[in-house]
Amino acid sequence: MKKDFWLERWEREEIGFHQDDYNPHLREYWQQLQLAKGSRVFVPLCGKSRDMIWLKSQGFSVLGVELSEIAAMAFFEENGLTPKYSVHGKFDWHEADGIGILCGDFFDLDRAMLENVGAVYDRASLIALPPEMRERYVSQMAAILPPGTRILLITLDYPQEEMQGPPFAVSKREVRELYGKYAKVALLAEIDALHLERNARFRQRGLSRLQECVFLVELR
CATH no. for residue 198? Predict the structure, then answer.
């Protein structure tokens, strides 16, 4: 999957993955990370997610990374924020009210850029990637995040042959295989989610099964 795929999705406003409301699993399970107020939360492939607003409202600063400048600017505009702009290496930096977004390639991040991160929120990052990119993604996360960082990871699992991703199906077994060499992985919840109102679009696409899984991943 090339960068142009996501850039074109944002240009054409093909953003069915975007959620207008705060994610219910974020609100229910975030406290299990036991993160001190004032800590910085990293949101990879953040898009214009309103979950960053929720995290800020809970007393955290937020650092997102997003390939599309359109997505980043839409986030600030739609939330009534006027960001300051600067350049950080290969990234364009936009920041307002304790929320900053680095515009550029996730794989260009290095450890120095994330040295103050205390936790990660991943709702739409791992499941946005095809199988051949997931191992590289997890390896990069382990390389750039401080040891001990906790990740709230939300995944979807469904019969992959019934729908072309993204979002892609990622099983519990695959999560454990991907992160097992770098982290301790705990399953917090598994939800039969096909008939939830927010997932109507998946029923319309013909899915026969849809599970949402919530993990707590703690890097070693």
Answer: 3.40.50.150
Residue 219: strand, helix, or coil: strand
Contact 32, 51 (CB under 8 A): no
Which residue, chain included where needed, has tokens 């900053």?
A: 100
Q: Which amino acid is at 82?
A: T
pTM of the predicted model, to two decimals? Answer: 0.94
CA–CA separation, 130 vs 126, rounded Å?
9
Structural domain total, the chain: 1
76 forms beta bridges with: none
Residue 39: partners with Cβ closer than 8 Å, 6 or more residues away: 60, 61, 118, 119
pLDDT at 9 exceeding the cut of 80: no
Question: Which pair of tokens denotes residue 111?
Answer: 């450890």
For residue range 15-34, what is the model confidence (pLDDT) as tens digits? 555 467 899 999 999 999 99
d(CA 36, CA 172): 28
Full domain range(s) for residue 144? 3-219
DSSP 58: T
Contact criterion met (CB below 8 Å) for 151 and 119: yes
Contact criterion met (CB below 8 Å) for 210 and 189: no
Please state, in angstroms and rounded to a whole number, the distance separating the CA atoms of residues 186 and 188: 6
